[in-house]
Design brief:
328 residues, Endonuclease, Chain A, four-stranded mixed β-sheet, three-stranded antiparallel β-sheet, 13 helices, 13 strands, 38% helix, globular
């Protein structure tokens, strides 16, 4: 397994004497950390979660002995990161206390977390990283991290690690880990599907079946969510990517339209939603919450909504306020 590289090239201030470029005084450069710079154009174009990965790599350049954990390890592993986390997270040495230095949180290694080395960078093991995040992230986001990990072979043994964490009575976040463990499903193919599944539950709807194959003659279509007894189909649309070639993009759009037409002829109700609809609690001029969309195609609420749980979708308290939280 390889760690994700920095999305922007990093340059050290000490190299200025070689390059002749004065990055500290040049507005075309951005200071990422003391002594580490990236081109302003590249930095400004990055999504918040990619900026965070650049910050992690910048810290690794100046602190080669660091052992990354929590969101910092997750970003390096290519797991979902929500917004731009406020802090760089590293482990303290043996018998060293936890502490904070600016945007760097040093965590006391009281549980003797296992560590893995990937070339010059050390992190908590993939399983340790996922369990740590399941403890501290808002529940739907933690579920998305665990679902994403379960889809990858290098996270073998995660289910056992989750169960061990959930059974540690009184341990921080044990109940949250248990909630996630009971719902984690590798069948969820995207972060939006994972977060959407939590929202569907909290709005009081029946749990959907994931990745259902529907046959129409000789054609098989797979759908994200289905309630077969209710003849309702749901599709979670994240960032839909079409070819840069206009002709190929047109073919892709037409193929998707034909697919949707087939499904609408079979289903009693068909509905699509994206990030905005998933995260919304109230209807606006531009956004209809997933609750209203599902009610509109005849899916009944079988339980009272869990308003406090739904409110956790609004923000990630571990990320920089007002930064874009999710794609789309």
């Amino acid at each position: 397994m390889n760690l994700r590289p920095s999305p922007a090239d990093l340059h050290l201030a000490r190299d200025e004497q070689v390059t002749g470029s004065r990055m500290r005084r040049d507005p075309t450069w951005r200071r990422i950390r003391k002594g580490v710079y990236a081109a302003a154009m590249a930095w400004d174009a990055l999504a918040p979660w990619d900026r965070y990965l650049v910050r992690v790599h910048a810290f690794a350049l100046t602190h080669p002995d660091a052992v990354f954990c929590f969101e910092s390890a997750a970003a390096l592993l290519g797991l979902p990161v929500f917004g731009e986390p406020c802090d760089i997270h590293v482990l303290a040495g043996p018998r060293s206390p936890g502490r904070r230095h600016g945007d760097v949180v040093v965590h006391a290694n009281v549980r003797a977390r296992a560590v893995a080395e990937f070339g010059p960078i050390a992190i908590t093991t993939p399983q340790e990283t996922v369990v740590d995040l399941a403890r501290v992230l808002p529940p739907a986001f933690g579920l998305a991290v665990v679902d994403a990990a379960l889809r990858r072979a290098e996270f073998a043994g995660l289910a056992g690690a989750m169960q061990d964490a959930a059974e540690r009575t009184g341990a921080r976040g044990a109940r949250r880990v248990e909630w996630i463990r009971e719902r984690a499903d590798a069948s969820a193919e995207s972060v939006l599907e994972s977060v959407g599944r939590a929202a569907i539950e909290w709005w009081g709807f029946e749990a959907p079946t994931l990745q259902v194959v529907i046959r129409t003659g000789a054609i098989c279509d797979r759908v994200d969510f289905a309630w077969p007894d209710r003849r309702v189909i749901g599709e979670a649309d994240g960032d839909v990517k079409y070819s840069n070639d206009p002709d190929e993009a047109r073919r892709q759009v037409l193929a998707e339209k034909r697919r949707e037409d087939r499904l609408r002829r079979i289903a009693g109700g068909f509905v699509r939603w994206g990030w905005a609809e998933t995260m919304a609690l109230h209807a606006t001029r531009d956004v209809v919450p997933v609750r209203d969309l599902l009610l509109g195609v005849g899916l009944p609420q079988v339980r009272n909504p869990k308003v406090r749980m739904l409110a956790t979708l609004a923000a990630n308290p571990r990320s920089i306020p007002h930064a874009r939280l999710l794609p789309g």
